[in-house]
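Q: I'm writing a short methods note and want an example of a predicted protein-small molecule complex. Could you take the sequence and the SMILES for ketopantoate and return the bound structure as tokens? Please keep the output block clean; save any remarks for afterwards.
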Amino acid sequence: MKMAVLGTGAIGSTFAYQLAKAGHEVTAVARGARLDRLREDRAIVLTDGARAPVAVAGTLDPSVPYDLVLVTVLAPQVDSVLPALRQSAARHIMFMFNTFEPLDRLRDAVGAERFSFGFPGGVLAHLIDGKLRRRILPGTTVGDAAWAKVFGAAGIPTVTSADMHGWLRSHAAMVIPLMSIGVVVAHRNAGITWREARRYAAALAQGFHIVRGLGHALEPAVLALFSRLPRTLTTGLLWLMSRTQELRKLGALGAAEPRMLIDMVATAAPHQAAELLAIRP
Ligand SMILES: NC(=O)C1=CN([C@@H]2O[C@H](COP(=O)(O)OP(=O)(O)OC[C@H]3O[C@@H](n4cnc5c(N)ncnc54)[C@H](OP(=O)(O)O)[C@@H]3O)[C@@H](O)[C@H]2O)C=CC1
Ligand SMILES: CC(C)(CO)C(=O)C(=O)O
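A: Understood, no commentary inside the block.
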């Protein structure tokens, strides 16, 4: 199939690499230093030197009827690519990033018949000096079984959800406290105190409560189970996790995404998000 990845950062590069290796014709659309690097390499290059050749472009060519355009920019960056997506002859456009907002705006911008959302739930990816390091575990979730099959065949085990909006919101509720703790511990170079862990656990519970209040069942099922753990246990888990390298690395990505997600929750549930606003990094 003919595919474009719009926003070839860590996640976009992971999908571009896997899909190109699986035999798809992939165009990586990037900007700035990442574009320069891709133009030089003409491939997604892994830290171990493995390469997957891709075509490279600075903008999405609207005249190309791609079978799939995968949009892997960050939520605040998506508005700048919507005009190009609207004009694109692509047959399917899948957005893939953390968000808590209603999805109608994006769906209406590109047309409901070719719109979907996915999330790289099992992927951990970084670009290190322009080279990709990625770990792919099961957990990527999409709204459409046909694309789950395509991604699965490309080495990205993917499941489907009938309520991607609820899935994204459930995920945001879980990841906000983790990202926010990450920011704190990356600065401090030490774990959080028990008292702080209690605040993050309260914010976690509030996020889950809000998602349910907005009419979604928590997804995936394991998250629904997690949300029923006693508060002391979630406090302890967050306290422990704050002492791991993983959370420090997560925090090193910066405060922009957790701040944005908290603001989105507070907008969706006005006057209900005090605990979440209290942990805004
Ligand atoms: N990395 C990971 O392991 C995981 C990430 N996620 C989520 O996936 C989403 C994507 O994350 P990630 O890939 O890490 O983020 P990145 O910031 O690495 O990737 C976004 C990319 O899109 C580029 N971009 C933005 N606007 C444009 C544009 N107009 N034209 C071309 N390129 C553009 C950015 O360029 P620039 O740098 O110049 O802004 C950047 O290269 C996030 O919501 C993240 O939370 C989820 C699971 C795992
Ligand atoms: C993996 C992580 C926490 C970091 O990028 C992430 O973005 C997500 O799962 O939402």
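A: Remarks, as requested: Residues 2-160 form a domain with the Rossmann fold fold (CATH 3.40.50.720). The longest helix spans residues 164-188.
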